[in-house]
Amino acid sequence: MGTSTQAYGEPWYWDNRYSSESGPFDWYQKYPSLAPLINLYIPRHVHPRILVVGCGNSAFSEEMVSDGYEDVVNIDISTVVIEAMKKKYSNHPQLKYIGMDVRDMSEFQSGSFNAVIDKGTLDSILVSAKQDAVFGID
Question: pLDDT tens digits for 119-128?
Answer without folding.
Answer: 766 655 555 4
